[in-house]
Amino acid sequence: MIITFLEMSVSVNQSKESMDISNQINRQNKTAIITGSGRGIGKETAIQLAEHVANVVVCSRTQNEIDSVVKEIENANNNQVNLLGSRCDVSVSSDVNSLVQSAVDKFGSETIEILVINAGVAFDKKLLDTTEVEWDRTINTNLKGAFFFTKAILPHMIKNRSGVILNVNSGAGKAGFSDLSSYCASKFGLAGLAESLALEVESYDIRVLTIFLGKVATKMWQDYDYSYYEKNKNKMLSPQKVATKIVEMIFDTKNYKNGDSVELYYP
Ligand SMILES: NC(=O)c1ccc[n+]([C@@H]2O[C@H](COP(=O)([O-])OP(=O)(O)OC[C@H]3O[C@@H](n4cnc5c(N)ncnc54)[C@H](OP(=O)(O)O)[C@@H]3O)[C@@H](O)[C@H]2O)c1
């Protein structure tokens, strides 16, 4: 089932619903791993998830950004959240396996509950100008990284017969865009991976969810087209708003079932 959030009236109802849901949730002894959580959407998702779960794993390739998110979460929660901040390149299977093992060792396999597959890169290039290195970086981060993380996490979720894997996708995972062929290929692939996985985990009470996003005001857009970003950042989605929707999808088991997706294109 695909749920679209384009109309104002729906958004108002949804935000009221989000508040109701968040009031019902106490911090649970669960572990949430958010890939690419050093900045942007991943960072805001880690910060908001830390209000609901006991253990949060912050990871990306940039240590100072990881340290700063960990500090921010510690300060905002009076050190009530257990944190693991660690470098992890999602395109390197040994990095992914060792991060998941560290989370299991620190928090326990039985707590492994939430995986947000968010790390991503994009290159603004025509196909003819795209180098093999850029193609590989895009596919290996946005798609192979999702494969590595899912494969490392899934045995714990299957054993627990519980878990949520939420994939951060894009409108570019539903339609082609000029100068974005490698990114579109990776995000279409991610959509296929999520749909297939949802069928495979049906009998284990694991939910695989996807959020398809429009333009979000993050560094990805600054790097992609700085002058467009500067002119239009106030008309873009904020990473905070995206994170709020992600958290709602994770905890609202009644409205977001295994295999569901949301399209959030406008602020
Ligand atoms: N911004 C948008 O308009 C938009 C729209 C639709 C979908 N999305 C999706 O949203 C997700 C987050 O993007 P964002 O906008 O928040 O971008 P961002 O601000 O650039 O953040 C991307 C995060 O991913 C991390 N990352 C990149 N490559 C990685 C790798 N190989 N291993 C581990 N971490 C890696 C980055 O950290 P390091 O570089 O330090 O590793 C950073 O923490 C992406 O999947 C993107 O495709 C974004």
Task: Tell me about this structure.
- The protein has a single domain (about 15-265), classed as Rossmann fold, CATH 3.40.50.
- Helix content is about 50%, strand content about 20%.
- It is built from nine helices and eight strands.
- It has helices at about 10-25, 40-50, 65-75, 95-105, 130-160, 180-200, 220-225, 225-230, 240-250, and strands spanning about 1-5, 30-35, 55-60, 80-85, 110-115, 165-170, 205-215, 260-265.
- β2 (about 30-35), α2 and β3 (about 55-60) form a beta-alpha-beta unit.
- α2 (about 40-50) packs across α9 (about 240-250).
- Bound molecules: NADP nicotinamide-adenine-dinucleotide phosphate.
- NADP nicotinamide-adenine-dinucleotide phosphate binds near residues 35, 60, 62, 88 and 168.
Q: Which key terms come to mind for this protein?
A:
binds NADP nicotinamide-adenine-dinucleotide phosphate, Rossmann fold, 8-stranded parallel beta sheet, globular, 267 residues, disordered N terminus, 9 helices, alpha/beta
When the domains are counted, the total is: 1
In percent, how helical is the residue content? 40-55%
- Structural class computed from helices and strand pairing: alpha/beta
Q: Give the CA-CA distance, first to last residue.
A: 22 Å
The total of beta strands comes to 8
CATH architecture: 3-Layer(aba) Sandwich
The top level CATH class name: Alpha Beta
Let me know the average pLDDT: 92
Number of distinct helices: 9
Shape type: globular
Helix-strand blueprint:
Layout: E1 2-4, H1 8-24, E2 28-35, H2 40-49, E3 53-60, H3 63-76, E4 82-87, H4 93-107, E5 112-117, H5 132-160, E6 163-170, H6 181-201, E7 206-213, H7 219-224, H8 226-232, H9 239-251, E8 261-264
Helix pairs in contact: 2-9, 4-5, 5-6
